[in-house]
Amino acid sequence: MKAKIFITLTVLMATLSFAQEKKKEKPKFNQKLATSLGADRYGMKAYTLVMLSTGNTKIEDKAKMAEVMNGHMSNIGKLADEGKIVVAGPFLEKNKENYRGMFIFNTKSKEEAEQWVKSDPAVQAGVFSYEIFPWYGSAALPLYLKHHGEISKENP
Question: Which of 3.40.50.300, 3.90.79.10, 3.30.70.1060, 1.10.10.10 would CATH assign to domain 34-151?
Answer without folding.
Answer: 3.30.70.1060
